[in-house]
């Protein structure tokens, strides 16, 4: 396997053969299959990735599973304990959750491993998973995009995903750069999108500081885990 620049791998994680991983953070106790491609991926704790999976600029939360030959195109989010696949391609911006999108109440702990899975299991009895949306072995609900105009959607995408980790030289030359122009209007951003944005910014900031201060990979993984 080939690990390229800006890769952090947590303790207890195993990586199969013929994988290519770049600009990615992988939490502890994850299992990565063979022939996997990860590009700007954020995998939290206890994530399972099957053979032949491709993940581009996406987040996979605690205990989620991506079955073999699944492709996550940029800006996808799989929340805790979701299962997708196998043999499925998810378009850009897909969000899959154990919470049905039409729930009246929003659970603030949706992205944490403390989400109340037992409640979700009882709801599944009333509303089954759509295998056409999440795959034959999938477990979760596909969230539809909010009814907003294209300009607002593009602004949110840039705010959430448009940041990259810069080298030390680039950082020094742009030390006065502000993220103010990338803030989402609070009237249009959902609480869920705000949570993703905050986590993304904090992870990128931690990676930037780790590169500048030469912090060990193990310590960086601990810091990133504490951000959740």
TrEMBL record:
Region of interest (Disordered), ranges: 102-126, 148-195
GO cellular component: eukaryotic translation initiation factor 2B complex
Coiled coil: none
SUPFAM superfamilies for this protein: Trimeric LpxA-like enzymes
Stored InterPro entries: eIF2B_epsilon (IPR051956), LbH_EIF2B3/5 (IPR056764), Trimer_LpxA-like_sf (IPR011004)
GO molecular function ontology, one term from the record: translation initiation factor binding
Domain EIF2B subunit epsilon/gamma LbH intervals: 2-87
Signal sequence region: none
Full protein name: EIF2B subunit epsilon/gamma LbH domain-containing protein
């Amino acid at each position: 396997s080939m690990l390229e620049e800006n890769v952090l791998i947590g303790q207890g994680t195993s990586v199969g053969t013929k994988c290519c991983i770049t600009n990615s953070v992988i939490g502890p106790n994850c299992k990565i299959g063979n022939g996997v491609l990860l590009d700007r991926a954020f995998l939290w704790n206890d994530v399972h990735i099957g053979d032949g999976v491709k993940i581009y600029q996406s987040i996979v939360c605690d205990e989620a599973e991506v079955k073999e030959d699944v492709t996550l195109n940029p800006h996808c989010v799989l929340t805790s304990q979701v299962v997708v696949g196998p043999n499925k391609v998810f378009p850009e911006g897909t969000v899959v959750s154990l919470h049905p999108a039409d729930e009246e109440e929003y659970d603030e702990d949706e992205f944490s491993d403390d989400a109340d899975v037992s409640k979700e299991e009882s709801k599944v009895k009333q509303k089954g998973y759509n295998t056409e949306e999440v795959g034959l072995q999938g477990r979760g609900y596909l969230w539809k995009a909010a009814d907003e105009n294209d300009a607002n959607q593009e602004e949110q995408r840039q705010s959430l995903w448009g940041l990259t980790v810069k080298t030390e030289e680039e950082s020094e030359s742009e030390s006065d750069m502000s993220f103010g122009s990338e803030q989402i209007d609070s009237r249009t951003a959902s609480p869920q999108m705000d949570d993703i944005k905050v986590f993304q910014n904090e992870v990128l900031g931690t990676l930037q500081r780790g590169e500048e201060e030469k912090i060990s990979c193990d310590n960086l993984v601990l810091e990133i885990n504490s951000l959740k």
